[in-house]
Specification:
By secondary structure, this protein is of the alpha/beta class. It has 2 domains: about 160 residues, NAD(P)-binding Rossmann-like Domain (Rossmann fold), CATH 3.40.50.720; about 90 residues, ProC C-terminal domain-like (ProC C-terminal domain-like fold), CATH 1.10.3730.10. It contains 13 helices and 8 strands. It has an 8-stranded mixed sheet, sandwiched between helices. Helix 1 links the parallel strand 1 and strand 2. Helix 8 packs across helix 13.
Length: about 270
């Protein structure tokens, strides 16, 4: 049976664990979680029945897959004491940290089969979007297993380079915050137009949900859907013209380029340490 170790038992690890157990392909007894917080370990044990550890070394002792669910700034500190064990055991290593490239992960861990992935926060409710990039040493069987593990939280896509993972970070990794900001703006504008806060919020959230589901199920792209609801001379057309005058496409592109650039900078900053 595949033994899966998690270093870090926070939100992202919890979402993956919950998804895996719900799928039913992996048992709780095959999941080992290391976390420094006693309360977090107790919660994971009580909620999921997984095995928990204070020691990272104890958690990885029998692992054939190691999922690193820690902040980028903590990655080297976590991996250095594990290097000798990982180099000997050679589990498949999966990192969910932004900005740490494949080569650096291989150097710090001693592992050959390494997968970089970038999930996003809707993974917490099973609606995530995850990009993955694998080293050449990852076998087809390991690749399929990595896909299965991350698909437990939503959809998965595979890319071909670290640079593309940085692009995924800018698009879907950071993307939920862009939509939340748009929701904030719509709610505030609704209030300015005379709606109360509760009504403006409910209408905004339902509109976002409906638009997302409609776009996901449609047989045309979002641009065509927009054209279909933008009647000439109508109210929607005036709103769209205002967005275009403000160069909304340029604003979004600049924001995503800034996010991708920061992901690349993190790789350089952390890789030198």
């Amino acid at each position: 049976m595949t033994q899966i170790a998690f270093i870090g038992g926070g939100n992202m690890a919890t979402s993956i664990i919950g998804g895996l157990l719900q799928q039913g392909d992996i048992s709780a007894s095959a999941i080992h979680v290391a976390d420094p917080g006693a309360e977090q370990r107790a919660r994971l044990q009580a909620q999921y029945g997984v095995l928990t550890y204070e020691s990272n070394l104890d958690a990885v002792a029998q692992a054939s897959v190691l999922i690193l669910a820690v902040k980028p700034q903590m990655m080297k500190t976590v991996l250095t004491p594990l290097h000798a064990t990982l180099e000997t055991r050679q589990p498949m290593l999966i990192s969910v940290a932004a900005g740490i490239d494949l080569a650096t992960l291989k150097t710090w861990s001693g592992c050959h089969a390494v997968v970089r992935c970038m999930p996003n926060t809707p993974a917490l409710i099973g609606k995530g979007a995850t990009g993955l990039f694998a080293s050449d040493a990852v076998s087809l069987e390991q690749r399929n297993l990595a896909d299965q593990l991350l698909a437990a939280t939503g959809i998965t896509v595979w890319v071909q380079s670290d640079a593309e993972i940085d692009a995924v970070t800018a698009l879907s990794g950071s993307g939920p915050a862009y939509y939340f900001l748009m929701m904030e703006a719509m709610i505030a504008a609704g209030v300015e137009l005379g709606l109360n806060q509760e009504i403006a919020t409910r209408l905004t959230l339902q509109t976002a949900l409906g638009a997302g589901e409609m776009a996901s199920s449609a047989d045309v792209d979002p641009a065509e859907l927009r054209h279909r609801v933008t009647s000439p001379g109508g109210t929607t057309e005036q709103a769209i013209l205002s967005f275009e005058k403000a160069k909304m496409h340029d604003i979004v592109a600049a924001a995503m380029q800034a996010a991708a650039r920061r992901a690349s900078e993190l790789s350089e900053e952390l890789g030198d340490k």
